[in-house]
Design brief:
Layout: H1 2-10, H2 19-26, H3 31-36, H4 43-49, E1 57-59, H5 61-65, H6 70-80, E2 90-92, H7 99-106, E3 114-116, H8 124-130, E4 139-141, H9 150-159, E5 165-167, H10 183-191, E6 197-199, H11 207-216, E7 222-224, H12 237-244, E8 248-250, H13 274-277, H14 292-299, H15 304-310
Parallel strand pairs: 1-2, 2-3, 3-4, 4-5, 5-6, 6-7, 7-8
Helix pairs in contact: 4-14, 8-9, 9-10, 10-11
Length: 335
């Protein structure tokens, strides 16, 4: 009995932990667990799960790939971003739906350092309007964003003076019939002299554009030009001099299996976990109510989160929703 008493005394209750410590633990969980498991344990856990320290890093890229409706992505963004309360540091989203969604992201970007938004549907105009809100940005991925160009890159460069890494990969099949142009390369050269890491695979820039970048961006350490077929670098003394200083250049030849991670989705066998995949559908099953504590936090978001989580009708579930597995070979989809 005495031994048992000592063991009991050494045990510590979860309730004795301060919310910040519990939040730090919760921040290591997957998005799925944080949204669908933790809030159901108890009221205090639900409230901690909706607190800012759990949402400094938001990665819904994989979740977005599993949903074909752009409004689902928008609703998930409007659910999660307010919980960060201005402390958001990393955000990864696949296919931001439109300018309004991107402007909403910008409104929560005061602390944002890393932004990945591949294949997003945004315009040069909206980037020009809100780029000043991304002043702390260090990493930017706007790969496969076909509706933006040099103007957007220049806006980011002009306002994001901490930017050191940019990824601007394009799909090889979408550039085959296009003419060479150096407008994006010139925008980078004019506004991003501090950049250290630049990826522009399958871009339309020419040798002259590369030279402008290297002449202006003296801190550049890595340059990816794979698939940039209008670039010729052999025998260029200015490139050899930079390489002696430590610059690493890939391409323009493609000598490896280039990773086309962001492909069009493909459907295969039905996913066993329909409940997780159904998050973001237009309506949700009432069985997936969050715990009361989290509901209170959701109420603070003007009720929009309640609509996302509580309105599901069974006959509107995405029947046959399949698991997508993205592989390097764009013609190969496996289950």
């Amino acid at each position: 009995m005495c031994g048992g008493g000592r063991e009991a005394e050494e045990l510590r209750s979860w309730e004795e932990l301060v919310p910040d410590v519990i939040g730090l633990i919760f921040s290591k969980l997957s998005l799925r667990d944080l949204l669908m498991v933790v809030p159901k344990v108890c009221r205090s856990w639900a409230e901690v799960a909706a607190a800012p320290y759990c949402w400094q890093k938001i990665d819904i890229e994989e979740w977005c790939m599993m949903h074909s409706k752009l409004d689902q992505v928008d609703r998930m963004l409007r659910l999660l971003l307010p919980w960060s309360s201005g402390s958001l540091r990393q955000l990864s989203v696949y296919a931001v739906p439109d300018d309004d969604s991107f402007a909403f992201i910008a409104d929560h970007a005061s602390s944002l350092e890393s932004l990945r938004i591949p294949k997003s549907h945004l315009s040069d105009a909206v980037v020009a309007q809100v780029a000043a809100k991304f002043q702390k940005l260090k990493f930017l991925d706007v790969s496969y964003c076909e509706s933006i160009g040099a103007e957007a890159l220049e806006s980011f460069g002009r306002h994001c003076k901490s930017l050191v890494s940019v990824k601007r990969t394009m799909h090889p099949m979408r550039v085959l019939s296009k003419s060479p142009q150096d407008d994006e390369a010139l925008a980078i050269a004019r506004t991003m002299p501090q950049i250290k890491h630049l990826e522009m695979p399958y871009g339309l820039l020419t040798t002259a554009g590369v030279r402008e970048i290297l002449s202006a961006c003296l801190e550049l350490e890595f340059l990816d030009l794979r698939g940039c077929w209008y670039v010729r670098l052999q025998g260029e003394e200015w490139l050899a001099q930079r390489q002696k200083q430590g610059l690493k250049v890939l391409g323009p030849e493609v000598v490896d299996q280039f990773d086309l991670h962001y492909q069009e989705p493909c459907n295969d066998e039905e996913d066993d976990d329909d409940e997780w995949n159904s998050i973001g559908d237009e309506e949700f099953d009432s069985d997936w109510h969050l715990h009361d504590g989290a509901d209170e936090m959701l109420d603070s978001n003007d009720g929009s989160a309640d609509d996302v989580w509580d309105d599901y009708e069974e006959d509107q579930r995405l029947d046959g929703l399949g698991m997508r597995i993205y592989v390097p070979d764009p013609n190969h989809c496996v289950g």
